[in-house]
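Thought: the user asked what Transposase zinc-binding domain-containing protein looks like in 3D. I have the sequence; next I should run the structure tool and report back without guessing.
Action: structure_tool
Action Input:
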Amino acid sequence: MSRYTMPDLSKFPNCCALSERGKCTRLKLFKCEGEQCPFRRSKKEDEDSLLKAYKRLLALDKSVQMYIAHKYYDSAMPWKDSIG
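Observation:
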């Protein structure tokens, strides 16, 4: 028998950063702060945020995009695959 019990995830908010053990994967917290957490996002909100960032990257000059891709994405441009 385990010393640790799995938390009832239905009591936690809808957040894409919530792990299966009830911990926050975005912040270094022992447990989820619930509805009052300023970093709480649903999966849809998280996808929309990423899409918005990719659109901003796509609007940049090609040389700037290449610089960002090389520095942060191992020379890949995931925003081009996702949007266009």
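Thought: the tool returned a structure. Summarizing for the user.
Final Answer: Structure for Transposase zinc-binding domain-containing protein predicted. The chain has two domains: 1-41, 52-83. Residues 64 and 73 are 13 Å apart (CA to CA).
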